[in-house]
Write a structure and sequence with these properties.
Blueprint: H1 13-20, H2 22-48, H3 50-56, H4 66-81, H5 83-95, H6 100-120, H7 128-160, E1 166-171, E2 174-179, E3 188-191, E4 201-205, E5 208-211, H8 213-216, E6 222-224, E7 229-230, E8 235-236, E9 241-245, H9 253-266, H10 270-300, H11 303-316, H12 320-339, E10 342-344, H13 347-352, E11 358-362, H14 363-367, E12 368-379, H15 383-394, H16 400-411, E13 420-425, E14 429-434, E15 437-442, H17 444-450, H18 457-464, E16 468-474, E17 477-488, H19 490-501, E18 505-509, H20 514-524, E19 528-530, H21 535-547, E20 552-556, H22 562-567, E21 570-574, E22 587-589, H23 595-620, H24 622-630, H25 642-661, E23 676-677, E24 684-685, E25 692-696, E26 699-703, H26 706-714, H27 716-719
Parallel strand pairs: 11-18, 11-20, 18-19, 20-21, 21-22
Antiparallel strand pairs: 1-2, 1-3, 3-9, 4-7, 4-9, 5-6, 5-8, 10-22, 12-17, 13-14, 14-15, 15-16, 16-17, 23-24, 25-26
Helix pairs in contact: 1-7, 2-4, 2-7, 4-6, 4-7, 5-6, 6-7, 6-11, 7-9, 7-12, 7-25, 9-12, 10-11, 10-12, 10-23, 11-24, 11-25, 12-23, 12-25, 15-16, 19-23, 23-25
């Protein structure tokens, strides 16, 4: 697909997207204008119609050439108000794909030409008022539909508006304001408190809290320091940051998100295919029913009644709601997922997610953090004393296990002691004197070299689980041991539990040992695991599960797991962060949170449910209304005139639109915050992370940047509404 950002240089992303949706705006304005003019002309048509005059007791309204004026006004409404439908009829006829426009165009044309014939040649029966009201209602329905589609399109622009238009570039030691489009990879930019980060990059100086709700869906600001990645469009908090630009243009996170949303909105859905087939069948059914109704009622009654029945059948059968049933649900569900860090590449695969039987998780970095941490403590003395001695010795070591012990001790608030005569014992551990005591910290090799033997069932059990055991020896005696392993994410427990609650089997695949895999599986309650599996062998495991009849989803990091992600029915890359361009995944979860898999499944199920509901309402009501319109119950005094048919049809469109919007309540909800508005640029900002605030005429005003504050001070009256 041609990217919507191609060959955009001076234009901003927002301008590009505005141009992209221009035709939607034009359609809304077109239908609105035609509706109001048609409604204005409908008033005299109703007043001059003999049927309406009889109903309302307005028989005294008589003017010269009344029928001729009525015909002229109706012809104007037909040609002007009905033009979009007549044009659509021709287009569908050329494509040999009859649908909604064909039905509407045929209905209003039959009514118009029959009425003209009745006026100019002979006959008292006409359909002028029915024709006018029918076109009015149809225009109203299309106006509502176009507004809904435009709103979905504007969701892209809302995301793009998150990107700032200017940046503070540091060049030759000076700060120069440039447009964000001028930034290049490697540039250093300054981001002041309250400002938006101009592009994806890495912090090289400073520390601050950054609001990345656009990235993760969470409103809590994230602490960022030197070496941390930041995403363009995120709002800087209280500190000043210097950032080295790593990505610009369509490589940035937001640009890729917009592209993905654009792709998914344009991609076909399995349910959409069903809707298209239903629309085609509906046309032929309506045409057949209309012709049959005309023939039967011509024989039973009169041609006028027969024509009324045929026109009503065609009107009620118009599949407005059918054309809206799927696109609106797609737009809403895409908005929900993208705002919560769940990005979809393929809508068909996303729909398939609802029927998954088995989910296979990669272990390292997915269910676990991918780094060592203390999991168990076996202490023969005071536990705080044990941790204090171990951390004090390991503080001087660069080993990953040593760092994990120190980090764990600090998180528990353990005091670190001064160490004398520190020595690193190659292959065994470390030694040092603490408050006169000789302290050793190390593994089994250390105990063997010291001639110390430990018999403890708890330690044996931990060793069987594949954990690394580190002993602490003080003055020749073992005072305890620390067990370390790849730490299980706290979120993984809930994720596995909720997946199993939904009837989904949870498997795990890892290159780790049998003992480690067994421990993780036992901890999380995983149904089955595959251990000692090399990266290229993971795809074979997925293939075997699919061969056994399961619909399989694979969840991995998108790099080592790429073959397995491609082999699965649904490939889910987790913890992708700013790396949206993971070609091997169908669904991308921005955060390192396995619970987002549950969110994706739930939204998939609710989305499909709404699609089916909309299809049943959009097409199903015809099963009742078409026979009534054809006059099946006319003998019992039950009939459906054309105008009523148009109202019923438009009502179904509105119901489908409202039903689609109810999907929003199933989406993950962001933490609610009270936001304030910058009076200059109109940006919504958290009052706790604003650049500045000033008191002006008894009210507090908040500003997102220095530029906005200075602009306000130059011309305050321009930005204050009384």
């Amino acid at each position: 697909m041609e990217t919507i950002f191609k060959e955009i240089e001076e234009e901003t992303v927002v301008e590009a997207l505005s141009a992209h949706r221009h035709h939607h705006v034009h359609r809304v304005e077109e239908f609105k204008q035609r509706l109001w003019i048609s409604l204005t002309l409908t008033i005299p048509i109703l007043l001059l119609s003999e049927t309406i005059q009889k109903w309302l007791g307005l028989g005294w309204i008589k003017i010269s050439f009344q029928k001729e004026i009525l015909s002229l006004l109706s012809l104007i409404v037909y040609l002007y108000g009905g033009w979009p439908f007549l044009r659509g009829l021709v287009d569908e006829a050329k494509d040999k794909q009859p649908g909604m426009m064909t039905l509407v165009g045929v209905a209003i044309s039959v009514a118009m030409f029959y009425s003209l014939g009745a006026t100019l040649i002979a006959g008292d029966m006409d359909f002028y008022w029915e024709l006018a009201t029918l076109i009015d209602v149809m225009l109203l329905g299309h106006w509502i539909e176009s507004r809904s589609i435009m709103s979905a399109s504007m969701a892209l622009e809302e995301i793009a508006r998150m990107m700032p238009t200017t940046a503070h570039l540091i060049k030759n030691g000076e700060v120069v304001d440039v447009t964000a489009a001028q930034l290049r990879k490697g540039d250093i930019v300054l981001v002041r408190p309250g400002e938006k980060i101009p592009s994806d990059g890495v912090v090289i100086e400073g520390e601050s809290h950054v609001d990345e709700s656009l990235l993760t869906g969470e409103s809590r600001p994230v602490n960022k320091g030197v070496g941390d990645n930041v995403v363009g469009g995120a709002i800087n908090g209280e500190g000043i940051l210097k950032i080295r630009v790593e990505r610009t243009g369509e490589e940035t996170y937001l640009a890729q998100v917009v592209n993905l949303i654009k792709q998914i909105q344009e991609s076909r859905s399995r349910t959409q295919d069903l809707a298209n087939r239903a629309a085609a069948l509906l046309f032929y059914a309506a045409l057949g029913s209309g012709i049959s109704a005309f023939a039967i009622w011509s024989f039973l009654a009169s041609p006028n009644i027969a024509l009324e029945r045929a026109v009503t059948v065609l009107v009620i059968a118009c599949p407005h709601a059918l054309g809206l049933a799927i696109p609106l649900v797609v737009a809403v569900s895409t908005s929900i997922t993208s705002k919560n860090g769940i990005l979809i590449r393929d809508r068909r695969v996303f729909e398939m997610l609802r029927d998954i039987d088995v989910i296979v998780f990669d272990k390292t970095g997915t269910l676990t953090t991918g780094r060592f941490g203390v999991t168990d403590i076996v202490s023969y003395t005071d536990e705080e004393e044990l941790l204090g001695l171990a951390a004090s010795i390991e503080l001087y070591s660069e080993h990953v296990i040593a760092k994990a012990i120190v980090e764990y001790a600090k998180s528990k608030g353990i005091q670190i002691h001064d160490v004398e005569e520190f020595k690193s014992l190659t292959g065994r551990g470390a030694y040092g004197k603490i408050r006169g005591s000789e302290v050793y910290v190390g593994g089994m090799n250390l105990l063997e070299s010291l001639g110390i033997d430990v018999n403890d069932a708890r330690i044996d059990e931990l060793r069987k689980e594949g954990k690394t055991i580190i002993f602490v020896v003080a003055d020749g005696e073992v005072i305890g041991a620390l067990a370390l392993a790849d730490v299980i994410r706290p979120e993984s427990y809930e994720a596995v539990k909720e997946l199993k609650k939904r009837g989904i089997k949870v498997y795990m695949v890892t290159g780790d040992s049998e003992e480690v895999a067994n421990w993780v599986a036992k901890e999380l309650g995983i149904d089955k695991f595959f251990a000692r599996v090399l990266p290229h062998e993971k795809a074979e495991k997925i293939k075997r599960l699919r061969y056994e009849g399961g619909r399989v989803a694979m969840v991995g990091d998108g790099v080592n797991d790429a073959p397995a992600l491609l082999m699965a029915d649904v490939g889910i890359a987790i913890g992708a962060g700013m790396d949206v361009a993971i070609e091997s995944a169908d669904i991308i979860l921005v955060r390192n949170d396995p619970r987002d898999v549950i969110k994706a499944i739930d939204i998939s199920r609710k989305t499909y449910s709404k699609m089916v509901q909309n299809l049943w309402w959009a097409a199903g009501y015809n099963m009742i209304t078409i026979p009534l319109a054809a006059g099946v119950l006319a003998g019992y005094g039950v009939s459906v005139p054309p105008a009523v048919g148009a109202i019923v049809m438009s009502l179904s469109t509105i119901i489908v639109a409202l039903n689609s919007q109810t999907l929003r309540r199933y989406g993950p909800r962001m933490e609610k915050r009270r936001l304030v508005t910058d009076p200059v640029c109109g940006m919504k900002i958290d009052p706790d992370t604003v650049y500045s605030k000033i008191e002006y005429e008894g009210r507090t005003l908040y500003f997102c940047s220095q530029a906005c504050e200075e602009e306000f001070k130059r011309n305050p009256r321009k930005y204050i509404r009384r």
